[in-house]
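Re: export button greyed out
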Amino acid sequence: VTTKEWLEGNPGLWWCSHSAALKLLRVVGAGANRHVCVVPHGAPLMERLSPIANCRLYCQLGGTNPTAPDIVTAVRTVELPDYLAMHSASHLEGRYRTQTWLAIARLSRASILVLVDPLSTVSPSQSVEFARVLRESAAYHRHIVIAADREAAVSSLGALRMPIMSDLDP
Amino acid sequence: MIRIPGYLTLIRAHVLQAIHTWWLWVMFAVCILSSLAAVMYSHHGYLDNVDRYSVELQERLRLRLQSTLGPGSRQRDRSLRVLRAPNPAAVLVAGVERTMPSGWDFGPAGAESLTPYSPEDPLAVFDVLTDGESVIRVFGGLLGLALGFGMVSRDQQRGWLRAPTSLPVPAWLLVGAVIVAGSAVLAVMALVWLGSVVTLATWLAGPGLDLGVAWWPTWFFVWAYLVTMFGIGAAMARVAPNLLTGAAAAVTTWTVLILLGPQLLAAVGRLTSDFPPLARVEQERREKYADRQRTADRTLAERLVSAAPDVESTRELDRVATAAFPRFEPDWRSDMSDARAEADAMAASWLETRRRWLGRLRLFARLTPGTLLYFSLAEANGQGWTAQRAWEDAVAKHEAALNRALYDDRSSVTLGLYWRDQGISWAYRWHSVRTHAELPQFDDTELQRGAGRGASAADIAAAIIQAVLVLAFAIGYPVRSEI
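Workaround output, generated via the alternate export path:
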């Protein structure tokens, strides 16, 4: 069974190591593939732009042009507070940065969402809330893959370990 | 398909981030303040040079007024001196101002160069950044490098430039956006720098004095230089495995290119120069011509004496020699003409060798951004080797005219003879001594107006090629396989 075939039949919230995630991205194609969205470590954003402007920028770069209501809806769906959505992204805490990326992924209709160490920037007190938002997003995207090298780092998110298929195995 | 508005938004966001970077403005402020300080310092040197020029002008005028008979000496004559006015544009780029002669004297053996303008300043030991160009080359280069390194490494730290790229566009387009944004910021900085330097220099120079700054070529070369350094910084950020290594590599590269590069060029230039200094050549030429002249005069005297073997008195010798002189004059003139040709060939050979050497150095100078900036700005603002060549050609032309009018057509010849164990002097006069008004005048109108000023196409091409090569490398360098 190849990775692609396995992914076809197994939607959900998964986790794997960084190296496996990198190989996965090579297999499914990333970058120019709009159906794959990668959230880098720290969920970086353009600091001078608001989360809404970041969403618009990302979508425009990808060739889509969502309307303002679509963006606001996406941002609210991932539970980013309105008072944060309109201001500079430099004030955002780690959790809200990742949630902005979830909105971006939703707007770009990504079927595979890869998050690199999402909990590294989320404080322990916010991790329960964040895990809930992430699980809710899993219902929208076909696959959410969390890249982390330690199981303890993702145990609170309820993600299952993704099996390594032969085409990912070195 | 990438939407242009999205890409423009990305560029705009990069520009906003760049202009909200505090250290960039600190560096730019240091660059501007250093440039202004260098211009003020250089302006003091210019005023000293103007003083020296005025004194020389007065001295020449005094000599001309006192010399009622006109220049007829067989030595160099200071009343014939050609003076080069100091160039006020040297505050922007010193160029050849400190190496080109401040004037030329003329004598029978040809032109002789005066010492260049140089400030007699006890603090000259600290002369490192003495004009606007040197400041922008050193500080501006560092600023461009730091900006390029900072902007690209920030994107790398964000994770946008790691493989696979997080944004749905190829990595080269992401780096391209950074480069377009950085180039736009640097274009404005180059314009602000140039505007502030020229404004201060114009204000210091006073009303009515045209600095002759070539605005757009100067701006273009400064901008291309900053963009090249920006590209080098960006390339270092792309290549280095981590931030610290990249920063160290960028600073090392700046040191090699900006500080060591020109020194290496100078060292190679000195090692490969196969001609003596100008002063020595002029002295040799002067001595050789004087020897030839003395020999020709002595030969003429011997011939005249041999033409009058039977005379008894000096009065009779004078009569016979005067009558015989036209017979020997062609040979004497031929000897003098040979001496002139030899002296001219000596000077021309030296000049040609030196120009070939300078041409080779110019080729090497286009290889590094710092030396290219120096030479291109100097050429664009009339302070380069082309301007020096224009002066040398004009002086050579004037020298030839003076030789024809004054030295090759002498008013008289005076010979010292030994005849029957007694020394006598015999003179033959063709015409009266020419006054200064009858001599060709040196016209420096075109030179003062900026002959030899202009951006060289080769410099423009070299600046573009350098910038494009480093930017292409920064853009095309493959992304690292990590997330």
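Chain B touches chain A at residues 1-3, 5-7, 9-10, 13, 16-17, 20, 157-160, 162-171, 481-483 (CB under 8 Å). The button fix ships in the next patch.
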